[in-house]
Design a protein that fits this description.
There is one protein chain. By secondary structure, the chain is mainly alpha-helical. It has one domain. It is built from eight helices and two strands; from the N terminus they run αβαααααβαα. The protein has helices at 2-7, 20-46, 48-57, 59-77, 83-103, 107-123, 149-152, 163-178; strands spanning 11-16, 141-145. The chain has a two-stranded antiparallel ribbon. The two termini are 33 Å apart.
């Protein structure tokens, strides 16, 4: 995302925001916070609920339902969200369901979720509606975002950028190539 924004002239890097112990402190605190967020959201939307619903309605039906709820919760309960943000969050949910389906474990989804949020909001100082459209205190780099909201996401961050949909397509294709389908004879909720 940052490479694309830079190519389109919509992001400028202006240096490191913190130094020394302050940098280390915020880097570690935010890493712990986003790891906990990754665990929480993945357990709620792709953990037990996914496994339980899959038994009754099939893996992909459950994945679509839970991902729609995941996107709707972000859209309706976070301030300043727009339809593009809710849709991209829901599609990210489907991507994480795909990683669960291919790997048969939540670990990839938890790690990817935590790291992508950390990179967006802490490393690259993207605004977030959960922080009233502002950068987080303790972000690591000073990055300026400029250009139309459809490109940068505006106060919602890049989750509300049209580029997010291109990134999602590339992620699915790359993941499908790296993690080919496993024939799982022991999984009762296999979608096929």
């Amino acid at each position: 995302m940052m490479v694309l924004l830079r190519l389109f002239g919509a992001a400028s890097f202006e240096g490191v925001a913190l130094q020394g112990q302050t940098l280390a402190k915020f880097a570690l605190l935010w890493a712990a916070a986003f790891l906990l967020l990754g665990f929480a959201e993945e357990f709620v939307y792709r953990g037990y609920s996914q496994a339980t619903l899959s038994d009754g309605m099939g893996f992909w039906s459950a994945a679509i339902l839970l991902s729609a709820i995941f996107g709707a919760v972000h859209y309706f309960f976070k301030p300043m969200e727009n339809w593009m943000d809710g849709l991209s969050v829901g599609l990210f949910g489907l991507f994480w369901c795909f990683t669960l389906w291919r790997t048969r474990t939540l670990w990839f989804a938890i790690g990817f979720h935590a790291m992508s949020d950390y990179a967006d909001m802490v490393l690259f100082a993207q605004p977030n509606t959960g922080n009233n459209g502002q950068r987080l205190t303790g972000h690591l780099l000073n990055v300026s975002y400029h250009g139309p909201e459809w490109l940068t996401g505006g106060p919602r961050g890049t989750e509300a950028s049209v580029l997010e949909f291109l990134i999602l397509i590339l992620l699915v294709l790359a993941f499908a190539r790296v993690y080919p389908r496993i024939e799982a004879e022991h999984v009762a909720s296999d979608p096929e």
